[in-house]
Amino acid sequence: MQALKGGSPLEPSAQKRRATALSNAHGLCSRLRSAQQATRPTKSPCVRVRDGFQRLHLSCNGSPYASPYGKRSLSSSHQRGRLQTSRALRTSASSEMGDLLSGLTLNPEDFATVEEKMMLKAIELAQRDLGMTQPHPNAGCVLTNPENVIVGEGALYANGTQSAEVHACEEAAGSAAGGIAYLNLEPGDCHGENAGVRALLRSGVKQVVIGLLHPMPHFRGHAVRELRTNGIEVKIFGEDIDSVAILSACQLVNEPLRFRAATGRPFSILKFAMTLDGKIAATTGHAAWVTSAEARAYVFRQRAYSDAVIVGGCTVRRDNPRLTTRMDNGHAPARIVLTRSMDLPLEANLWDTSTAPTFVMTQRGAQVDKQEILRSKGVEVVEFDFLTPGAVMDYCAQRGFLQCFWECGGNLSAPAILDGVIHKVMGFVAPKIVGGVTAPTPVGDLGNVQMTQAIELDRPHYETIGRDLMVTGYITSSYSSIKPVPGSVIGHHLSSKLEHDAHGESEPDGALELTSSEVQQALVAAWGLLPGPPQGMSRRPKVIRFFKAWDEYGCFSNFSPHPIVVDSGIYASDTVWSSSEHFYQAQKFFGVEDARATELIEQIRCAASPEEAAKLGRTAEKMSPELVVPEWTTKKLEVMRMAVQAKFSQHSGPRKLLLSTAASEGTAASVLIEASPHDRFWGIGFDGMGENALGKILMELRGFLVAEESLAKEGQLTG
Fold it and tell me: Residues 6, 641: contact at Cβ < 8 Å?
């Protein structure tokens, strides 16, 4: 593999320019953060804790009760170009929260110890940006000086952004030396460099207080051990500090993450609205509206806290919903439609994918012509051998979803409950009576013939929103019925594809050619297509799947928070891109003589997270294809190579992690698989037949880096 432009060694003058550019970017980030701090509204002493999709508050004895909560404000993130939007959204959120902070709350004055009071602040920070980006681990950090004065605060804004600890330490600017750090969640660094722990060590704190050990097994306890190894005292709620209320709050704020870590599936909430006599619509199917405007606004906010909103085909036919959050900014969850028959209208609001993606999940072979029509509209159609709610949840798990919001009718809610995929219920009861023997109800037939068979909700909670009553509770039987999903399940079609690789057969057009026999042998052996490991290897290679930035090998993803400077000639050589994804998305539009393309490139460069950069680029590519550079489909491989090469050459942590997957004595090199189920070019796709182009680029790069290191060692020996 030849040296690539993005990562080729630079002359001393170029290295100096790059260092200056990175330093200037860091200074700009700090100034923006300081300016944004001044725009924050005065904080209420009441701390709001999210339990699934509602804000739960815990009394001092630990019993849960709830209070509604409004739209979250933008974080004080370091990214450029977000200051004006941040000010506007914070003003809106502040006024909205004033109407919703009712009832009892976790008040810092109710707690006696400094640890409890400061942990409440960390919990508040962890929730600060809910609804602005796709669900992710919710982490907050508070730093105090030796006098217990807060000198730094931080929160994780989105997947692929700097950790809460890094933000807090930058804000403290050295003033936390000898103080204490309070974290609601143990640091989890999948980027190969333990940035959060290193920031805490550099800050000079003498003690770290953690509310909850990380639920993910590849993170759990690692940061605690490293901190203690470096002489930092670590206290953990539930182990070293007794506080039922605080420990419960820390658990609730990351409930979806904890559930996924334990079961391998997303946390699912079933929401419905009905009249006092139990009807979700009139006998004609008319249902606008069952609940009040206040209740509907509440539901819009809950959608933003979810990865996906799920309905059945009947809901599409009857209501023609949009299933959006009605927010101008923030996360737009995917809309998922379940239908075995594909009995769907050709025109529907959900087929407009300009604001949010739509997936139709159906039985294999159902109305293939209609499937193609929907695909032509930008809808993603996924076929299952046998469509069930459980199969859909397994698919959502592969997509990395943490929580799903079911807004379906009774024909789908009953099978979902019986399939064990509903874990929490959110029911709205309106003070109305509509009547009707045949009027639909929220849950279909569960097979119960006696009231003693009824499902009793655990930990029920009651709250008034507008004129309506909201009842929430858990279906505990769902937890015991779910078994963990294997982490390395891939479609069987991939085996035949890898067999083509092994025997030198041609791949489909656009595939990335593999030239490394070591990689080919590893691919074949990993899937059992040889009688044993490659010759000279005593063990089969490990298969490493990566997708989300918070996966164990998250730095292999384009969404990892590693700024790059690409000396490519495509853009200014000293331009700092916040991530590989920022650079990649911007190149789609570079060189197009259109003011819209120029503006779009700048918007992508200034996006606050890789997620938002990707959303900008993908949406523009779909809605305005005339802005995309000619022959992008043939150019994108080289652009991705440049971005990947730049990241792994400019950041030692990812490079070290990549090299750790190379062949070692007696073991073949690991197989790297981009596990995205929806991307059949960069990933493997849902059926396993995708090209895995990103995984191949990484394996190709790994071979180059191994050879480069070998040459360097030989040079040292001969020198």
Answer: yes
For residues 186-213, give the mean pLDDT.
Answer: 92
Tokens of 42: 């005065």
Residue among 115, 153, 165, 407 flagged as catalytic: 165
Q: How far apart are CA 223 and CA 595, in angstroms?
A: 47
pLDDT in tens, 651-702: 999 999 999 999 987 788 999 999 888 888 999 887 778 899 999 999 999 9
Neighbours of 432 (CB within 10 A): 15
Q: What angle do CA 170, 176, 177 make, to 5 degrees?
A: 120
581 is catalytic: no
Which 3 state secondary structure label does DSSP give 654? helix
Judge contact between 118 and 182, C-beta under 8 A: yes
Return phi, psi of residue 162, to 5°.
-60, 150
Backbone angles phi, psi at 643, to 5 degrees: -65, -45
pLDDT digits (tens, 9 = 90+) for 140-174: 999 999 999 999 999 999 988 999 999 999 999 99
* pLDDT, position 22: 47
pLDDT at position 618 over 60: yes
Angle of helix 580-587 relative to helix 610-623, nearest 10 degrees, comes to 20
Q: At what angle do helices 632-650 and 652-659 cross, to 10 degrees?
A: 100
Lowest mean pLDDT among 80-84, 418-422, 556-560, 589-593: 80-84
Contact call for residues 221 and 197 (beta carbons, < 8 A): no
Tokens linked to 271: 């929401």
> Within 10 A of 716 (CB to CB), how many other CB atoms are there?
8
Phi then psi for residue 712, to 5 deg, are: -65, -40
Side-by-side strand order, sheet with 54-58: 49-51, 54-58, 64-66
Complete edge-to-edge strand list for the sheet that includes strand 233-236: 150-155, 140-144, 180-183, 207-210, 233-236
Would the CA dihedral through 511, 516, 519, 520 be positive or negative?
Answer: positive
Across the strands, what pairs with 426? 271, 472
Q: Which is it for strands 140-144 and 150-155: parallel, antiparallel or unpaired?
A: antiparallel
Asked if 582 contacts 25 with a C-beta cutoff of 8 angstroms, the reply is no
Strands in 379-423 per DSSP E: 380-384, 403-406
What amino acid occupies position 628? V
E-state strands within 570-658? 576-577
* Dist. CA 336–CA 399, nearest whole Å: 13
Taking the complete model, does pTM exceed 0.90, yes or no?
no
Upstream peptide bond of 632 is cis (omega within 30 degrees of 0): no
Report, in this order, helix, strand and coil percent for the chain, each rounded to 5.
40, 15, 45
Q: Exposure pattern of 662-692 as b/e (b: 16+ CB <10 Å)?
A: bbeeebbbbbbbbbbbbbbbbbbbbebbbbb
pLDDT in tens, 276-292: 999 999 999 888 899 99
* CB-based contact 299:435 (threshold 8 Å): no
Helices (H), 56-194: 83-100, 114-126, 164-172
- Reply yes or no on whether the pLDDT at 380 is more than 60: yes
Other beta carbons within 10 Å of 239: 12
Least confident of 390-404, 488-502, 698-712: 488-502
Q: Coil, strand, or helix at residue 485?
A: coil
CA atoms within 13 Å, Cβ hemisphere of 358? 26
Three state DSSP letters for 565-577:
ECCCCCCCCCCEE
Coil, helix or strand for 18?
A: helix
- Shortest CA distance to 166 belongs to which of 191, 203, 132, 207? 203
Residue 698: alpha-carbon gap to chain centroid: 22
**Please, are residues 35 and 90 in contact by the beta-carbon 8 Å criterion?**
no
